[in-house]
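quick one, 145 residues, struct below
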Amino acid sequence: MAKKTTTKTKPATVQQQVKFKKGGFYQDLGGDLWFCTNAKQKMVGDDKVVMMQRTEDGQPVGDATEELVGSFNKQLSAAELKEYRAVCQRERDAEEETGSKAAPATAKPKAKKVKTATEQPNKMSALDAAAKCSASRPKRWRRRK
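---
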């Protein structure tokens, strides 16, 4: 006769409690990474909040804000944080690489403005002004040679 094996599963409603440490990195339920600036939890209404700071590529940026304690599902270990930063760096490098190759192919070449001899500069020198003035005088006002 075969033995029956039973497995116990935890109910889906029970959420694992995360312990917060100042200076630790935490992942929220949306997959974003946060930096803990103050591990002390406080009650705001019926909810517990903790001071967290957003991160960009694994580095804290911006000001600290109060975030719900229940919105975080795990603390990242040093190895996980290192891997997260490496992935962000690879994505940034790949984006720069594809961005630089795609830009010349899709961008239209800009026509260079060529100055012609007939164009007048914005500011006129005194000699140019005198020459222009003498050229615009009627013939009777010009000196005879």
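The two ends are 133 Å apart (CA to CA).
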